[in-house]
Amino acid sequence: MNVDVLVAGAGPAGLAAAIELRKLGVADVVVVDREHQAGGIPRHCAHSGYGIRDLHRLMTGPAYAQHYRGAASAAGVTLRTGTTLTGWPATGCELATDAGAAPARQAGTITATLTSPAGVENVHAGAVLLATGCRERPRAARLVPGSRPAGVMTTGELQQRVYLHGQRLAGRAVIVGAEHVSFSAMLTLLHAGAEVTALVTDQPWHQSFAAFRLAARLRWRVPVWTGTAVAGIAGRDGVSAVLLRDDRDGSVRSVPCELVVFTGDWIPDHELARLAGAALDPGTRGPAVDTTLSTSVPGMFAAGNLIHAAETADVAALSGRHAAAHVAAYLAGQAAPAGQVALAGQAAPAGQAGGRCVPVPVMVAGPLRWISPNAISPVSPQPPGGRFVLRSAAFAGRARLQVRQDGRLLTSAHARLVPGRSIRLDGRWARHVDPAGGAVQVAVL
Ligand SMILES: Cc1cc2nc3c(=O)[nH]c(=O)nc-3n(C[C@H](O)[C@H](O)[C@H](O)COP(=O)(O)OP(=O)(O)OC[C@H]3O[C@@H](n4cnc5c(N)ncnc54)[C@H](O)[C@@H]3O)c2cc1C
Description:
The chain has 3 domains: about 1-135 and about 265-340, 3-Layer(bba) Sandwich (FAD/NAD(P)-binding domain); about 140-265, FAD/NAD(P)-binding domain, CATH 3.50.50.60; about 350-445, no CATH class. It is about 20% helix and about 30% strand. It is built from 8 helices and 29 strands. It has helices spanning about 10-25, 50-55, 60-75, 155-165, 180-190, 210-220, 270-275, 315-330; strands at about 1-10, 30-35, 50, 60, 80, 85, 110-115, 120-130, 135, 150-155, 170-175, 195-200, 225, 230-235, 240-245, 250-255, 260, 265-270, 300, 340, 355, 360-365, 370, 375, 385-390, 395-405, 410-415, 425, 440-445. Strand 15 (about 240-245) and strand 16 (about 250-255) form a beta hairpin. The chain is globular and about 60 Å long. The structure holds flavin-adenine dinucleotide. The site of flavin-adenine dinucleotide (FAD) has 38 residues, from helix 1, strand 2, strand 3, strand 6 and helix 4.
């Protein structure tokens, strides 16, 4: 089968991108999702808080997902659920492993393998958009010692059990984490009939809004235990207790509970990008993307929480729309792919051999963990929504961020740094980046 654009992932980013591609006149847009219903994570987030920046209204997660499903169908997007993009076959697939070796673009040269109950098939696409989102790091990957009883889950699993499968969850619960999603997990647990003993975080403060913290304490009588790490989980068939270590004095105590929910600590679902040989960003751990959301593989773009794990759904949807404009331009031959932007009618800038102009990398220094997008495209330097998104590993009340290239100050801005919380940086400075210059550096003073 040949298609113009194949989108992997029918969450807010993938659906918003597909709708925009159709609006831009791209004829054949196919979105695949491994789940049996399109809509991504919002399908099982029953609370309100969706749609503000992209749809300019406040909606619950399921209503938001339904809106995007309806809009995609109305726009003429082909939705294929229960279908997983499982890889890129070795033949018929021109995937570059690095920018220097990138082949010239030819429409219809990316071949993807789709797996569904109907079998395995190859699809040839003019361009591919990866919008596979992110997931929370599970208990096993956090190396928490102890037994492996039932009752340990992530927020994603919790919400699927409660809101998609209608399960009741009795017993006492301890929530690991104290960021926005952790408070969301608290509400889900209470809704499901559990009693929440506490939220615990190894950080010195919680990482969410003061209002959430206050509401947890006053309305639901749920404390947040800071400076507290999980030292182990006990139980045979089911959880019987969680062992908590106080990082201030090293003491360990056993807190009886039947449920432990690990929240936050997001990992992008980058498997497809990795299999394609796309460069990964060491900070975000998703595919490296420039401001057009192009990866290092020609014709392959990425959007949503795959490139910034995890932002809100409206930010993911807006990044999908942003990617769509560049995918459409790429298909129309208006933009050259990442890593091999031809400088038509111009001499190659200094330091760029063969008339090629590579995106300028953007690097962060500690305590900053990552920035997204992580390179400036010389073709279109504006990031999605005009803003870069950053994360910090440490708290700072009023930090000063400075952006420099080769010592030249491009901008400076004040920001409050909270681990796990979004920092947004106005991206107008990107227009002043010298495409022939060195990497852009973002630092905290
Ligand atoms: C508990 C919780 C509460 C939240 N609350 C809010 C809120 O109040 N407001 C808000 O704006 N945001 C909220 N969010 C965040 C929001 O849900 C995400 O930002 C948003 O869903 C990200 O969209 P996405 O399209 O990038 O990824 P996702 O929604 O994760 O969608 C990715 C899709 O890709 C599919 N997929 C992955 N790999 C493949 C593959 N190989 N082949 C086919 N399909 C694949 C998945 O099945 C999935 O459907 C919350 C998140 C959580 C977990």
